[in-house]
Specification:
four-stranded antiparallel sheet, alpha/beta, Rossmann fold, six-stranded mixed sheet
């Protein structure tokens, strides 16, 4: 299986006042195409920083991040924004839906950055909502949906552009156990049936069981390599 993500000697240092804080210490990592990876580790271990670097939301201090043969660590801010819009779907703990828009319009939002016409945007959003089991809720606004349903809308929005991979940051952290299991089952289906590569940060060992591999970070370094397979 070919690698989708190749990371070599990755360092990330933040300047906090007069102090420099190194969050990641020389990470080397390969993520195969079609994998579902759970990133785990204690608070402050660097897992969200690593996720943001893979998703192009942040840039490394040094090291290489190659995704589908593209060196995203060399990209400018504008190039990264364009790359993200084409390749990455984001799912966050808090759904980040627009409260004044219904589910359909929320899912269409990423498509406004494309050349698609209104009819095709609507059709693509309907397909995405059907895939997450919410076609019958497309006219509902976020405050008319449960937390689990709102996260499904967020996932539909993340996949509507058919991105190369999904970045999920604690996607079940704000949900009850039943809703969390439904969302994790949906992510697992997107991976196993539809072939989406997924990288997910979670603190929940139960959530990590849905992934195909688990990567543990501690104090900015990977531990338990090679990858543990479920």
């Amino acid at each position: 299986m070919s690698s989708l993500v190749s990371i070599r000697n990755l360092h990330k240092i933040y300047q906090r006042g007069p102090e420099k804080v190194e969050v990641l210490h020389g990470i080397d990592l390969e993520i195969p195409r079609g994998d579902f990876v759970a990133l785990m580790g204690p608070s402050g271990s660097g897992k969200t920083t690593l996720l943001n670097l893979i998703g192009g939301l942040d840039t490394p201090t040094s090291g290489e991040i190659e995704i589908e043969g593209e060196r995203i660590d060399r990209m400018s801010g504008g190039q990264l924004a364009n790359w993200r819009s084409r390749h990455v779907g984001f799912v966050f703990q808090f759904y980040n839906l627009m409260p004044m828009l219904n589910a359909q319009k929320n899912v269409e939002l990423p498509l406004l950055l494309t050349t698609l016409g209104a009819a095709q945007r609507r059709r693509n959003a309907e397909i995405a909502l059907t895939l997450v089991g919410l076609a019958d809720r497309r006219n509902h606004k976020p405050n008319e949906l449960s937390g689990g349903q709102q996260q499904r809308v967020a996932i539909a929005r993340a996949i509507v552009s058919d991105p190369t991979f999904l970045i999920c940051d604690e996607p079940t952290g704000d949900l009850d156990r039943q809703s969390a299991e439904e969302i994790l089952g949906l992510l697992q289906e997107l991976n196993s049936v539809h072939g989406k590569t997924i990288v997910m940060v979670t603190h929940d060992p139960k959530a990590a069981e849905y992934a195909t591999h688990t990567i543990h970070l501690d104090k900015g370094e990977l531990v338990d390599l090679p990858l543990a397979t479920h």
